Structure formats: structure tokens, C-alpha cells
Backbone:
């Protein structure tokens, strides 16, 4: 068990957006984030360090939850602006050979046919390296851009998502593997008897099918999910190949993993076919003191810009946190947004929440590469698998080098993370251990 390998993935949190634009070492990214270069560099680095995949986060609205105004969000470039993640995929794929690339696309914003077609196309052009981060959307502001006043109720969003995923996966399989014949002599491009309409009639969606393109290299590209509530976990246990989750403590990670694995068994699946990756925000430097100093620098920044963090959290939780005194403990709150996030607010102050949001409290991954690799090793041994989803919403190229050329080589030296990609397809590499 000592050297059981685990997976690494990168969460491009806040998506295709300005990165670290007001912070030191950001180079030209403030002006140039609208071009793919920074993100292409990121993908190349992730592949150099043998990450399994990179997820591109997304939402499609300018938030105005905090004080009922979009000003704070625009002032800080907090959760907005954001461009379409699907457009980044081919650029990243063109610059790499093995890395899995996972755009976020919402089941309450896309139509299933449109999404099935997009992901199938991306799987073809990346030669089997795409995934889909299956989110349901949680913000009313997002819903308002798509013709509704508010989001569907929380659990109904997952009911719709279940139907959505049924249609999408049926469409991906609607062309049999040998449907394309390419017989020039007898003029037969594709055999009609091997291409099947799906005739789906659900409670929420209808779709005739078939898809208007052949099945793609992975057939079913890697499905990724992040539901934290019981209904969200049930959805993830049914569909996900990989689950991305918050990991505040070893106990919480173990409990989450046990829960998802039990649900997967109940859904008739092999729990080992769901790779659960926990969020981690490492700060690595040449000495323990230097790393601590880097982490501490985020405290004064948070104090100075506390409204930015509260505004971001207001959007995620779907509750305007400006209405509460900064130092009064919060009551129990209910939301139609991220339920698992808001459930953790009760009894905490908004100042404390903002600080925790800024410095990413939870397990402390701060120190030299050797130290942080050791902590990751211990945590994974305790939890039992399957890996970490590293992130830093305000990354610079310097930060990426520290991770990919500092931390990861130390993980590899210990035999903890992969040093090569044995397979061609993203799915096969993910399922390799
Ligand atoms: C690591 C992580 C990444 C996520 N990425 C996105 C995203 O890109 N877009 C989005 O709308 N929701 C995203 N979510 C939110 C989830 O899809 C889900 O709505 C959230 O975890 C709350 O689930 P629950 O309501 O079942 O508790 C993410 C959540 C986590 C933990």
C-alpha cells in the first residue's frame, strides 16, 4: 500500500478568464488572457508532469448576487468575464499528445443533442482525449440568460440531468463500431442498418437521433462530476468516471469516498471505476519558511479585498452574504444553489469564511517539494485513493513551474504518480490504476 499510485488532475478554476491580473509575476496575462497562449502553456506543463487531465471550469453569466449589483464582480474580474471553455479544447489538444481535457458544459443550458454532438466532435479531433464535466448549473442569474427566471429546484436539476445523460450516451452509441464502411467500389460510405435512431421520450426531453457523426474513439468520453449533496452524489455514482470533490480533512475525504463507492455498488457499478480526486492547493518553495511566507501573503490580501471573496461565495452559495455582520456567527441557511457548500456555513462568521476561501484552509499543503509530497503521500494512504485535483484560481506561469518541475518530480521519485502515459485514450489511462 505504501507506494500505491494516485492520479493528478488540474482544475482551471474560474475557467477561460483573466488570471492573476493584479498580482506580481502575472507577466502579460492581464492584457492577453483572451488569447489561448497562457492556457496552452498550462496544458503543455501538465502533460510534462503527466497529469491525467485538466478541467476547464465554467459558468455563463455576469453575477450580481452580492448587493444586487455586478460592480464588485467586474471590479475584481471575480467569476467574470469568462469565455467558452469548449473553444480552448482543440488549442490545448493540438499542443499535447496525451493529456485528457475536460470542458464544463451545463445540462440546464445545453440541449442533449447539441452537447452530445459537441463532445463527440471534440473526441474525434483530439483522437480520444476529451471528457465532459457534467454540471447542472446552480445560479438563477445563469438561468435568466437562458429564458427562465430561476433555476429548476435542486433535486429536479439532477432528475433532468439523469435524462440528459441517458440521451447523450445513447447518441454516442447510435452508430455501431463498424457502421462506416468506406467501400468506394460499391459506393457505400456508411451502412444504414448499423446507424440507429434512439427515439427517446422522457419527462423532460425528447430526441429522435441518431447522432449525425460516427462513434468517436472513446465512444463514451470520460464523464466527470462534482455533486456534493446526497442527490448529487447519487447522480455522480450512476454516471461519473471521475468525481472531483472538496477535501477539507482526511475524515471527510474518507467518508465521502466510502459513500460514493457504496452508492456505485448500489447502482450496479464497480466502485474502482470511479476515480475520486480531492481539491488541493499546494504552495511549494525552496524552504519551509519561504513557502509559509507565500501562503501568509494571502491573508492581508484577503483582509484588504474581503468583498471580493464574499461576492464569489455569494454566487456559489446563491445567498447574498453582504446582508450579514462580518463577525456574527451565521444561522443555518438553505439554498437552491450548492447545497453541500452552504451546509458548512452555519456557526461561522462571513469574515472567517472569506479568509478560509482566500487561504484555502483544510489540509495544509505548504512547504518544500519534499514536505508537500510527503503530506500528499500520507493523506492518500489514509484515504485509500484516488488522487488530487490541484488548483490555484490566480495561477502564474511561475506557479505552474513550481508544481510541474518542483512538486511533481518529487511525487514521481517516490513512485506516487505516473511518469508516462501507457495508453492512447484518456479513459484507458485514467482506469489504468
Ligand atoms: C471541484 C469542483 C468543480 C466544480 N466546477 C463547476 C463548474 O465548472 N461549473 C458549475 O456550474 N459548477 C461547478 N461545480 C459545482 C458542482 O457541479 C455542484 O453544483 C456543486 O458541487 C454542488 O453540488 P450539490 O448541489 O449536489 O451539493 C464544481 C464543484 C466542485 C467541487
Residues:
Amino acid at each position: 500500500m505504501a507506494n500505491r499510485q494516485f492520479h493528478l488532475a488540474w482544475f482551471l478554476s474560474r475557467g477561460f478568464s483573466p488570471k492573476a491580473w493584479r498580482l506580481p509575476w502575472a507577466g502579460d496575462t492581464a492584457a492577453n488572457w483572451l488569447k489561448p497562449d497562457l492556457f496552452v502553456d498550462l496544458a503543455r506543463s501538465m502533460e510534462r508532469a503527466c497529469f491525467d487531465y485538466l478541467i476547464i471550469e465554467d459558468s455563463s453569466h455576469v453575477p450580481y448576487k452580492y448587493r444586487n449589483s455586478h460592480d464588485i464582480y467586474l471590479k475584481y474580474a471575480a467569476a467574470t468575464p469568462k469565455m467558452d471553455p469548449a473553444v480552448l479544447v482543440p488549442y490545448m489538444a493540438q499542443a499535447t499528445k496525451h493529456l485528457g481535457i475536460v470542458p464544463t458544459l451545463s445540462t440546464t443550458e445545453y440541449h442533449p443533442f447539441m452537447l452530445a454532438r459537441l463532445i463527440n466532435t471534440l473526441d474525434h479531433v483530439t483522437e480520444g482525449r476529451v471528457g465532459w464535466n457534467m454540471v447542472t448549473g446552480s445560479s438563477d442569474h445563469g438561468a435568466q440568460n437562458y429564458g427562465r427566471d430561476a433555476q429548476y429546484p435542486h433535486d429536479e436539476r439532477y432528475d433532468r440531468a439523469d435524462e440528459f445523460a441517458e440521451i447523450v450516451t445513447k447518441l454516442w452509441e447510435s452508430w455501431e463500431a463498424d457502421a462506416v464502411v468506406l467501400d468506394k467500389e460499391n459506393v457505400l460510405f456508411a451502412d444504414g442498418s448499423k446507424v440507429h435512431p434512439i427515439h427517446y421520450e422522457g419527462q423532460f426531453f425528447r430526441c429522435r437521433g441518431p447522432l449525425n457523426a460516427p462513434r468517436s474513439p472513446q465512444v463514451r468520453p470520460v464523464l466527470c462530476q462534482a455533486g456534493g449533496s446526497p442527490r448529487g452524489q447519487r447522480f455522480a455514482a450512476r454516471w461519473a468516471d471521475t468525481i472531483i470533490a472538496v477535501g477539507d480533512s482526511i475524515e471527510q475525504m474518507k467518508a465521502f469516498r466510502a459513500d460514493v463507492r457504496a452508492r456505485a455498488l448500489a447502482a450496479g457499478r464497480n466502485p474502482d471505476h470511479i476515480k475520486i480526486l480531492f481539491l488541493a492547493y499546494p504552495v511549494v518553495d525552496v524552504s519551509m519558511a519561504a513557502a509559509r511566507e507565500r501562503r501568509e501573503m494571502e491573508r492581508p490580501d484577503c483582509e484588504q479585498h474581503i468583498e471580493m471573496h464574499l461576492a464569489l461565495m455569494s454566487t456559489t452559495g446563491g445567498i447574498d452574504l453582504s446582508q450579514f455582520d462580518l463577525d456574527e456567527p451565521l444561522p443555518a441557511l438553505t439554498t437552491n444553489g450548492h447545497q453541500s457548500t452552504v451546509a458548512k456555513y452555519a456557526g461561522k462568521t462571513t469574515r472567517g469564511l472569506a479568509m478560509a476561501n482566500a487561504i484555502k484552509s483544510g489540509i495544509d499543503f505548504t512547504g518544500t517539494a519534499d514536505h508537500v509530497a510527503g503530506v500528499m503521500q500520507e493523506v492518500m494512504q489514509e484515504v485509500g485513493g484516488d488522487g488530487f485535483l490541484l488548483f490555484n484560481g490566480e495561477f502564474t506561469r511561475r506557479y505552474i513551474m513550481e508544481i510541474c518541475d518542483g512538486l511533481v518530480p518529487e511525487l514521481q521519485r517516490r513512485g506516487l504518480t505516473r511518469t508516462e502515459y501507457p495508453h492512447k485514450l484518456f479513459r484507458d489511462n485514467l482506469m489504468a490504476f
The chain is about 40% helix and 15% strand. The longest strand covers residues 100-106. Residues 154-172 form the longest helix (19 residues). Residues 179 and 193 are 8 Å apart (CA to CA).
